[in-house]
Amino acid sequence: GEVREFKASMTALDLTQVIQGPMHTGGNTLDLDFVSGQCLRDLDTKNIVITDHSLLRLDFLTALPNRREAEPTIWYRPGQLMEPERFQTELGPIPEALTHSSVGALVEAWDRAAAGALDRVVP
């Protein structure tokens, strides 16, 4: 049914489900975390005393955003409606000052950069 179709879609996109069981002691919550197999390292789950949920720690192996990957990019919209090279150019390099910043600071910087790049590429 729908579950099989969903799993087939994830497999077609070369994604693997990280969590194979409940992350909640009640057993009724299954987190659907999917990653590309080559980008995940050091998956660790720990029970937390103050809650009935578990802590999930992942280490992602990622390239810098402006670096081209060897694998082809999968587009979900027709290619003629996108300008990926221009978007990458508009994003620009990661400022050196952010390389050792907190996750929150990196997310905020990415949100600002992506929003600005999208405004310029797709006004």
What would your notes on this structure say?
The structure is a single chain. 31% of the residues lie in helices and 17% in strands. It contains three helices and four strands, in the order αββββαα.
The number of helical segments is 3
Approximate helicity band = 25-40%
Strand order in the largest sheet? 1-2
Please give the oligomerization state of what you see: single chain
The ordered string of helix (H) and strand (E) elements is: HEEEEHH
Termini separation (Å)?
Answer: 40 Å
Q: What global shape is seen?
A: extended
Total number of strands: 4
Mean pLDDT: 71
Low-confidence blocks of residues: none
Radius of gyration over all CA atoms, rounded: 18 Å
Summarize the biggest pleated sheet.
Answer: 2 strands, antiparallel
Percentage of residues in strands? 15-25%
Number of domains: 2
Helix and strand composition category: alpha+beta
Considering the chains and any ligands shown, give keywords for the structure.
single chain; about 120 residues; alpha+beta; 2 domains; two-stranded antiparallel sheet; two-stranded antiparallel ribbon; 4 strands; extended
Give me a quick take on this structure.
Helix content is 31%, strand content 17%. It is built from three helices and four strands.
Task: Record the SSE blueprint.
Layout: H1 2-12, E1 15-17, E2 34-36, E3 40-47, E4 54-60, H2 84-91, H3 103-121
Antiparallel strand pairs: 1-2, 3-4
